[in-house]
Amino acid sequence: MKRILVTGGAGFIGSHLCERLLNEGNDLICLDNFFTGSKDNIRHLLGNDHFELIRHDVTKEFFAEVDQIYNLACPASPPHYQYNAIKTIKTSVLGVLHMLGLAKRCGATILQASTSEIYGDPQVHPQKEDYWGNVNPIGIRSCYDEGKRCAETLMMDYHRQNHVDTRIVRIFNTYGPNMAVNDGRVVSNFIIQALQNKDITIYGDGSQTRSFCYVSDLVDGLVKMMNNNKGFVGPVNLGNPSERSILDFAKYIIELTNSNSKIVFKELPSDDPVKRKPDISLAKSKLDWEPRVDIKDGLLKTIEYFSTKLGELK
Length: 314
Prior knowledge:
Layout: E1 3-7, H1 12-23, E2 27-32, H2 39-42, E3 51-55, E4 68-71, H3 78-81, H4 85-106, E5 109-115, H5 142-162, E6 166-171, E7 174-175, H6 186-195, E8 200-203, E9 209-211, E10 213-214, H7 215-227, E11 236-238, E12 243-245, H8 246-257, E13 263-266, H9 281-287, H10 295-313
Helix pairs in contact: 1-7, 4-5, 6-8, 6-10
C-alpha cells in the first residue's frame, strides 16, 4: 500500500484516477478547492477508510507524508481557466512549486499533468515531445499554456538540481463520465446540445482537428508513467492518435444521440489550434501504453452519463 496525494482529485480526470488507485489498494488523499471539481464525482469513495478528502487550494502550501503525488489541480477548459487568468497561472506555477517542495521533503515521486496546449497552434504535425511549440505568450489562452510550460520547467529543474523523482505527461483531449455539464469543451458541448436538440455550435469552419482519448485509457497512462521503473521522467504524450475534424465529430454525435440538432458556425476564438494530434511512439516504447477504448464505446458511455446528469438538473 502506497500513500498517494492527488491534487484536483474531485475533478474529471482526478476522480477516475482516485477510484483506480483506491481499487489497487492504496491509501489516498484527495485535494481539491472545488472550483471545477465536484463532490458528486467522488461521493461514492467517501465511505472508504483509505480515502481522505481535503478542501484545499494548491496556491497555498500543503503538508503531508506521502509516497507519490499526482498534480492535476488546474482548470483545463478555456471558459474556466480564462475566468480568472491570474489565478490560473498561479495554480500552475505556485501549485507545482508547493507540490515539488512536498515531494522533496518526503522523498515522494511527483507526476505533473501537463497538456498538449504547450504545443500551442502547432506547426509540426503530429506533435512529438521534442517539438517546442508555437504559443502566444500574451494571448487569452496563455495563462494556461504558459503556466503549464513553466510547470514543466520547474519539474525538470527540481529533478536536475534537487534530484526529485519527477514525471511529466502531456495530456491531449480526454473525454468520459464526470466531465462537468458546463465544461465548455467540444465533447461536453456537442453532447449536451445534441441531447437537448439545440443547435450544435462549431467555432470556425469545422476543419480544425482534434484527437479524443477515453478517460480510462488516460488514467492507465498516468499510472504507468508514475510507476515506470526505467528512470523515464518524460515528458510523454498521452492521447489518442486517431484524428478527426470537428465538423465530422459533430455529425457523429448527432448520429449517436439520434438528435434533431442543426450545426451552426461561429467565429473561431483567438489562438485556437488548427490541428492537434499526438505522436505516441514514446509512450508505446517506454510505457507499453496506447489507447484501447473504441471512440463509439467511449462516446456512448459519455452520452449516457450526460443524459443522466441533464435528467437530474430538470
